[in-house]
Amino acid sequence: MKKYIIIVCLSWGMVFSQDPLSGVVQYKEKSNIYPLSGASIFWKNTTIGTVTDMGGAFQLERTPTTDLLIISYIGFTTDTLKIDTIFISHQMIQNMEDELDEVTLTQRRKASQKSFIETQNILKISSEELLKAACCNLSESFETNPAIDVNFTDALTGTKQIKMLGLSSPYLLISEENIPMVRGASQAYGLTFTPGAWVESIQISKGAGSVTNGFESIAGQINTELKKPLSDIPFFLNLFGSINGRYEMNTHLNHKIDEKWSTGLFLHGNKRTQRFDNNNDGFLDLPVSEQINLMNRWQYTDMEKGWVSFLTWRYMKDEKLLGTLSFNSQKDRGKKNHWGSEIKTKRWDASFKLGYVFPETPYQSFGFQTAYSSHIQDSYYGLRTYDIHQDSFYTNLIFNSIIGNTLNKFKVGLNYSFDDYAELVNLDNYNRIDQNIGSFFEFSHDNNDNFSLIAGIRMDFHNNFGSFFTPRLHLRYVLLEKFVIRLSAGSGRKAANIFAENQTLFATNRSIKIQSSLGKIYGLDPEKALNYGLGLSKSFYIGNPHQITFSADYYITQFTNQVVVDFEKPREVFFYNLEGESAAKSFQIELDYYFRDDLNFRAAYKNYDVQMNYKNGFLQKPLLAKNRFFGNLGWESKTTTAGKQWRYDLTYHYLGAQRLVHNLIDRPGGFSPNYSLWNTQITHVFSKKFEIYLGGENIGNYRQQSPIIGADDPFGVDFDAAQVYAPIFGGMIYTGLRLKIQ
To answer: Which end of the chain has fewer CB atoms within 10 angstroms, the N or the C?
Structure first.
């Protein structure tokens, strides 16, 4: 009986992953096709390589030094392939005679990879990196990576927020398979609506993004790639529990219907029923919560004719109860007996993506994507009401081709977005419709040696913004071997959804004041920004296999008409367009040291200078650590023939002083203390099918003292639970198991 390995590599422009080469490795036995894990794939005469995961999938950067790809697996003859098309279909026939003499080169795939080939400053995080922490959702997916900062939003909801380049998530384009996802009504809690176990990889790009992704990517883009039914394993189960009362279940069920159709069912549920008040202030440290998340994906692939498509729909229901220990929603809502809050969210999403590669001209392709979402949040905070309903529609059409030869490529396309907002803030209604039609052109050049560029421009017609241009430019130059210099510049626009993005203000009794500029959105004008960036990357070896990668980058974001959220006066919060200077400056240096194949160390230092001219003076942005340190140590034992393995991970975070705003307790000019956080996890893999893990977050048990101001009088004018600079609950221990059936 003969076996075959079938390799299918796809590249569909912006419709799918932007990785230069991706695919799935399978083997055929009789009439059945199975995914093949552990196959080695690497570029000839380079160290750039990877191995296929449990679902037979792989992603691999291209290199300008060679187009020869080597594929190896024990029991098969090693082949060398010349890659000169968008996709290939290759079969490796089992070498029956020389099976015992077969030599296989394997290389452990790095869980986090900085690209030396991409023109943009891109970091790619694989599913292996996500397993290093209690990755329950996207907001918790960046604890082991220095590119993204993670902080708590307030002392009540337990929600984490992310920042990059010193700017909060509304200044990032957060997309799911290049469809804008976390925006508008979902800004506050949207990152908690995507389970980490559903994520295949994450691409983080710093600075102004591509014009193909829209005009809102000011500080960067975070794009998640979800598990694909074709490449994901048939069954996956993850069970999770922690001492903070959170229990979680994730399961994937995938089925290949025939040679072209595959489908997957993804289920997620989490619940927290226990009530904790470790600081004895009378308030829950973490909310009582429950979430149900369901997704169904259909994948169609016809490689001979060049078609691939995805149809995805999902439903999510999330409920949170927070407030004082004694609060009963049925008895106390709308009364001053006990302070409490409920946040209830329902969300429907549906998307369709279609890609086509011209078989006769594989450098030409087009992609089409469209998506609809309905987001309904009904909530109250004490005596305050906040409801927001958002219906969104998005569609994008893109065409890829070349100019003269494959060194010069271009993308051209159109997209349309529609958002219908209905907001209720106490007794005030804020309803609006945003519509935008955008067109874009992007040119890229790569001499396959030492220079590449991406230059793009888009023009948008917005019903509330008017018409405007947003140009973007990215340059990459290889000064020396493995020494890359990058430059970037670009402009962006943003409509500030002041209530949805700043729901922490409802965890206070501050009066809300909007100082109108006669704009069309809350009376405010849209924000404009320019982003400039410089990046350096150098990789070298100190003997073999001691590999060191050093990188440094510096970004400046300058704003015009920035919408300021001003907490500087006690008992009040102001929203207004800034007339003076506002700039965010970010500097980061990072060192990755691979001692050997199973041991690596990563360290980073970040400095932020984010200041703006408030009404009462030129001040540093509050609740932002100017200095941050990061360290991570990872170890993996060698995998035995039976699939057994140990994995260990240790992460360190240091946060410097953060400026505090004036309130009942904190005086003007006050700063928080410096503090450190330690996270760790150990995993024992018993076989390719089963593993258990045990971990701890904040194992030093650092907690912010008295995080809620005016906790003894929650209906008083000084009540404020929004000034949070450190963890509230303290240390947390968790455990879980993973079951995989191929």
So the answer is: N
Structural domain boundaries of the chain?
4-109, 122-741
- Four-point Cα dihedral 49, 51, 57, 59, nearest 10: -20
- What CATH code is assigned to 122-741? 2.40.170.20
Alpha-carbon span 88 to 85, nearest angstrom: 7
Terminal CA-to-CA distance of the chain, rounded, Å?
21
Instruction: Give the number of other CB atoms < 10 A from CB of residue 273.
Output: 10
Backbone angles phi, psi at 128, to 5 degrees: -60, -40
For 59-97, the pLDDT digits (tens) are: 677 776 677 788 777 656 677 777 766 556 556 565 544
DSSP 296-332: EEEEEEETTTTEEEEEEEEEEEEEEEEEBTT--HHHH
Torsion of CA 520, 350, 210, 12, to 10 degrees: -160
Which class for 221: exposed (0-12), middle (13-18), buried (19 or more C-beta within 10 A)? Answer: buried
Cα 208–187–172 angle (5° rounding)?
A: 10
pLDDT tens digit string along 163-208?
A: 999 999 999 999 999 999 999 999 999 999 999 999 998 999 999 8
How many angstroms separate the CA atoms of 324 and 711, rounded? 9
Residue 39 predicted with pLDDT over 90: no
Q: Using alpha carbons, list the distances in angstroms from residue 247 to 238, 579, 680.
A: 11, 48, 19
Residue 503 identity: Q
Q: Which of 663, 731, 615 is nearest to 244 (CA)?
A: 731
pTM for the complete prediction? 0.85
Token pair for 148: 């993204």
What is the fold of 4-109? Immunoglobulin-like (2.60.40)
Instruction: Encode 51-84: b = buried (16+ Cβ within 10 Å), e = exposed.
Output: bbbbbbbbbbbbbeebeebbbbbeebeeeebebe
Q: How far is CA 360 from CA 133, 363, 364, 399, 408, in A?
A: 46, 9, 9, 16, 19
Residue 657 pLDDT more than 60?
yes
DSSP one-letter code for 128: H
Q: CA distances (Å), 337 to each of 235, 340, 380, 427, 714, in order? A: 49, 10, 15, 22, 10
Q: Which helix (H) or strand (E) holds 161?
A: strand 160-164
List strand residue ranges (DSSP E) for 495-598, in order: 511-514, 527-541, 547-560, 563-566, 572-577, 582-596
Find the angle CA(342)-CA(704)-CA(661) to the nearest 5 degrees.
80
